[in-house]
Amino acid sequence: MLRQKAFMKKTKSGKVLKVVKEHYLRDDIWCSVETCKVCEHSEPVLSAVPSINKAYRLPHYIIPDTNIFINQIDVMEHPLITNVIVLQTVLEEVKHLSLPIYQRVRDMIANKEKRFYVFSNEHHRGTFIEKLKDESPNDRNDRAIRVATKWYGNHIKDLNPRVSVVMMTDDAGNRDKATADGLQAISVKWYIEALDNAEILDMMSSAKDLDDGQKTIYDEHLSAAHVSNGIKSGKYLQGKLGISSHNYLEGSIYTKINGEEGTILIVGRSNLNRAVDGDIIAVELLPKSEWRTTPTGVVVDEEEEQAEEESLKAEQEAAATAAKEDALDTPQPCGKVVGIIRRNWRQYCGFIDRKSVHTPAGSSAPVNVLFYAMESKIPKIKIRTRQAHSLLGKRIIVAIDSWPRTSRYPIGHFIRALGEAGDKSTETEVLLLEHDVPFHEFSKQVLSFLPVEGENWVVQPEHFAGREDFRSLNVCSIDPPGCTDIDDALHVIPLPNGNYQVGVHIADVTHFVKPGNVMDQEAASRGTTVYLVDKRIDMLPSLLGTNLCSLRSNVERLAFSCIWELNKDAEIVNVRFTKSVIASKASLTYEEAQNRIDDASMQDDVTSGIRILNMLAKKLKQRRLDMGALTLASPEVRFSLERDTQDPVDVEMKELKETNALVEEFMLLANISVARKIYEKFPDSAMLRCHPQPPSANFEKLEKAVARFGIEIDHSTSKTLSDSLDNAVLPEEPYFNKLLRIMTTRCMMQALYFCSGAQIEQEFRHYGLATDIYTHFTSPIRRYSDVMVHRQLHAAIDSSLSYGDELTDKEKMNDLCGNLNHRNRMAQQAARSSVELFTHLFFKNKTEEEEGYVIRILKNAFIVLVPKYGIEGIVYASAKVSKTADSGDAAAQPQPILVYNPETDCLQSTETLAEGETPKTQVQLFQKVMVQISIDDDLKGGGEGGMRQKLKMELLKPWIEGISVHGISNKDDPEAHAVTSKKREEAPVQAQDKKRAGKRTKA
Question: At CB < 8 A and 24+ separation, what contacts does 804-809 make?
Fold first, then answer.
C-alpha cells in the first residue's frame, strides 16, 4: 500500500516548492514469534515459551515504551529480561533522545540470547496510525504503542502453547488507556518486583523514593533558553567542569573571559550547584570581592562527613580565610554554576560506605545507603538496595539518575557487583571501566574479517603487485623485551657516493583492515592499544597484532616503507614512500642491540648496520636539540612479576639505552616526512598531531622555586626552555636536573590529533619536538591514527587509487580526532592507574623508608616524589587526629603545624617572624626529605578490604613535631628521639585525663 503526503515548502531564495513524501505500508512484516504459522519466518527471534513471573503466570512478550528504555536501561539489560518487542516508534524516539542509550538498545537487539526483536510498526498496514488533529507527538506515539500491542495480542491469540503480550510503561495515563482497550499494561516496578530477584530490584531507578524533598539546599538551575540567551549576551560563560584531584569541593572551567582564554574557579558545594566532573556548565562570575588569586590548594578528603550545616559553615569559613590570604596578589575570577548544558553522567565504580548501613545483617529490606566512587572527584551517591550487607567489601557499579535541589547528594541506582575489593582482577576491571577502555572480546563479526588462512597466512606472489621487494635487505627490529606486536623495523645501506640509504619499514596493517568494515569500525572505536602492567588490551585481534602484521624475524611480512638518502651529516637528500615486502633478519631487544654496538668482536652485516644507524641517530638528535626540541623526563618504573600469580615481586626504574634513542630518532623522522607528504595531498583533511605552546602561567610556581638556586627558566620558545634546562644543574644534587625536567613535563599542554583544515598552519607546530608539522605513522598495530595516516599516504603516492570521503571529509576527520584524543588520554590514565594498583600490591604488608623530593606545595599538605619507585604521595601539614576523639570535639579537627606562605610558595612554622627572619621550619619545592611508605587500609570501607586503598606517606626527616613519625631511619635522631620519649612519658597521664573526662561526660 502506498501513501502520499504533500505539503508546500518555501526555500531561502523565496521560491515555493511542493514536497511529496511517499510511505509504503506492508502486510508481510514478521511478528518473529517462533510458533507463528502465519508469518513466513526465516529466523524467528521470540521464543515459543517466553518467561513467566508472579504477576503473569502465562508466558508473555514485553512491549516497553520509550521512557522504560530511557529511565530503566540497566534493568532492560539484565539477563532476566528477555523476549522483548522493540517497536520502531520507540526505537526512533530513543535515538532522538539519547544516542548512547540507543546504542545500548542496539547492542541488546544484536545479542541473540536476549531475544529482542524490532517490529516495524510504522510500516505495517495493521499498526500504522495517522496523527490526529490537536494530538501531541508524544500522545500519538503512546497511541501507536497501544495499537501495536493490540495487534500483537490478536495476531498470537490462537498460538499453541498460549502466549500473551504485556505493555510496560510508567505513564499511569497510558496504562489506564491501555487497560480500557482491554490490554495488559504494567509499570516496570510492578513487573520487576514480581520477578523476586534482589539484584534486578536494586537496578531500578528510584529517584522519587530517595528524594526526601524536605529542604532546599541548592539554587534552581536556569532553563535551557535562559542559559542560551545569557551565553550569547556574555552574562554567563560556558565550559567543561574539571574537579580538583585533591579537593572534591573545588572545580574550574577554561573559557574565554572578555575575549581572552582563562580559568574560572568554582569553589564550594553551593557554587558547584550539583555539577559533576565533566559536565558542560553555564557559570556566572561572582563579584570581584569574592575572587581569589589561585585555587585553594587545600587537600580535602570526604572520609569524615559532618552534619550538613557544619560542613557548609566550614566551606564558608575556608573561603573567607582563603580570600584574606589571596588579597596580596591579582585575584583570579571565581564563579557559580547557574545551569547544566550537558550532563556527563556515566556508570561509576566504587563501594558502599559501611557507616551508612544501619540495618541488621541478613535483612533484605530496601535501605538507603551512600556510595563512594573510586574517582574521588565524584560526589557520594545515594542509592537504595536490598543487598546492603552482601555488597559490603565489594566493588560495585552505580549510575546517577537525578540530583534534585532538595538532596545533598545525587541519587542513583545499583547496576551490578564486580567482585571483592583488593582482588587484582576486580581492581583491573574497575580501572578499565573507570577510564572508559573497551575491553570486551572481539565479536565473531569482527573476527570474520580476518584472513581465512589464520596463522597459516603467508605472503603470496599476488601480494607483490604494487610493492617493492626488500627481502634481501638486512632489516632488523629493536623493541622492549617481550614485545610481540612489532610494527617497525630499520635498515641501512652505504651508497657509492658516500651517503646512506636508510629505510623505516612499518607493518602494513591497512592490507588487512579495510575502510568501513566491522573490524575497522571496532578499531576506530577502541582508538589505541592499552598497556597495563600485566596485560594488554589490543586495538586489533591478536592474530593481526602479534602475528600477521608483526614484523618478526625470518618471516616475510607486508610493510609500508619510508626510504631516505641521508648524507654523512644525517641531512635528507631525498625521500620516497612505497609499499613493500620485507623479511627481518633479527628481532632484537634494546639491550641486545646495545650489546652488539658495544661488542667490537661482532662485525656481521646487521650489527654493522646498527652501528651506522646509531651514528646517524646521534646527529639527528643533536640537530633536533639545536632547533629547540625538549628533553623531558618522567618517573617510569618496571615491575618484575611472579610467573604464575603475576604478583609484583620487584620494582625498578626503566633504564634507557642509546638504542632507545636510535629507534626514536628514525621514527620521528618518518613521522615528520609522512606529515609533509599527506598535508601536500590533503591540505584540508590530513590527520596531524600538534603540541601547543604552554601558557606562561603554567611556569609561575616553578620559576619562583628555582629562583632561590639562582636559576632562571626562559620558556618564551622551546629552544630557550631547552637551554634553560640544560643549564639548570646543581653539582651537590645530581638528581636535581632530572627532577626539574619531570616538573617541566607537568607544565606542558597535551599533544592532540587534529584535522589540518580545522586549524591555521601556524598552529600545526609541535612545541616539544620543535617541528612545524608532525603526525603518527609508525605504530598502526596499536594506534588507529596511524591506520588513517597510512591510508592517506597510500592515496598520496598512488594516483590510481580510489578512496571514499573518509580521507577528505573534514567533519568526519574532526570527529575521529576527538575520539582518538579521548581514547589516548584514557589509555594513558589507565596505564598509570595500573602502575598505581601494582604499587599498592607491592607495598601490601610492608613498610619502606626512602628518599624523596617535594614536587608540589598545597595549603595544608605537600606532595613527595620517591624516585626509586616513581611514586608520589601526600604528606599532610597538620597534626594527626585521634581516631577515638569525638567528631564534634576540637581535638578531632586537624591542627595545622605548618602554614602556607603565598609569597614564597612554601609551608612554614607558625611562629611570628621579624622582618627578614627565616622560619625555623619550612617545606619548599625541590627539598629532599625522607619518608615512610605503606598502604593505608583504614579508610571509608571501615578498615576491611581497603575500600579506597591508597599509598600512605609519612615524614621521617626533617623531624617536624606533630607531623613526622618515628621510623627506623630516624631512631637515632636526638631531636626525634627526645620528642618521641616525651610523648611516651606523657601518654599514661593523657590516657588517665581522657578516662576521667569520659566518666564526667557519662555522669
Answer: 804/515, 804/516, 806/515, 806/516, 807/682, 807/685, 808/682, 808/684, 808/685, 809/685
What DSSP character marks residue 584? B
At 792, phi and psi to the nearest 5?
Answer: -70, -40
The residue-averaged pLDDT of 10-21 equals 64
For the range 641-649, what are the long-range contacts, defined as Cβ-Cβ under 8 Å and sequence gap of 24 or more?
Answer: 641/533, 641/534, 646/424, 646/534, 647/424, 647/841, 648/533, 648/838, 648/839, 648/841, 648/842
Asked if residue 692 and residue 675 are part of one domain, the reply reads no
Instruction: Show the cell assigned to 981.
Output: 620519649
Residue 13 pLDDT class (50, 70, 90 cuts):
low
Q: Mark whether 147 and 296 lie in a shared domain.
A: no
> Smallest Cα–Cα separation from 949: which of 958, 938, 933?
938
- Domain total for the chain? 5
In 3-state terms, what secondary structure has residue 73? helix
Average pLDDT score over the chain: 86
Q: Give the length of the chain.
A: 1003
Q: Tell me the pTM.
A: 0.84
pLDDT digits (tens, 9 = 90+) for 890-904: 444 556 788 888 888
Which H/E stretch holds residue 19?
Answer: strand 16-24
Taking each helix axis from N to C terminus, what angle separates 424-434 and 810-843, rounded to the nearest 10 degrees?
150
Confidence of residue 382 (pLDDT cuts 50, 70, 90): very high
The average pLDDT across 165-171 equals 94
Q: Which of 104, 108, 103, 125 is nearest to 62 (CA)?
A: 108
CB of 200 closer than 8 Å to CB of 77: no
User: Which residues are 119's β-sheet partners?
Assistant: 87
Residues 668 and 699 in one domain: no
**Which triple of cell numbers denotes residue 403?**
540530583
* Residue pair 937/946 in contact by the 8 Å Cβ criterion: yes
Whether 16 and 10 have beta carbons less than 8 Å apart is answered as: yes
The cell for 909 is 612554622
Residue 766 Rama label (left phi>0; alpha psi -120 to 50; beta) = beta
Nearest to 673 by CA among 565, 751, 519, 587: 565
Question: Apex CA 867: angle with CA 864 and CA 870, to 5°?
Answer: 85
Residues 6+ apart with CB under 8 A from 179: 185
d(CA 331, CA 288): 8
Tell whether omega for the bond before 958 is within 30 degrees of 0, i.e. cis.
yes
As a whole number of angstroms, the distance between CA 629 and CA 772 comes to 11
Q: The cell 571483592 sits on which residue?
A: 420
Residue with the bigger pLDDT between 194 and 646: it is 194
Alpha helix ranges (H) inside 58-136 = 66-71, 73-76, 88-97, 99-110
Give me the sign of the Cα torsion angle 562, 567, 571, 572. Answer: negative
**Residue with cell string 566551606:** 315
Asked if 376 and 245 touch (Cβ cutoff 8 Å), the reply is yes
Residues 699 and 586 in one domain: no
Q: Which domain holds residue 891?
A: 844-992
Neighbours of 29 (CB within 10 A): 17
Question: In this structure, are 280 and 144 located in the same domain?
Answer: no
pLDDT at residue 27, rounded to an integer:
80
Distance CA 42, CA 802 (A): 38
CATH of the domain at 399: 2.40.50.690
How does strand 922-923 pair with strand 752-755?
Answer: unpaired
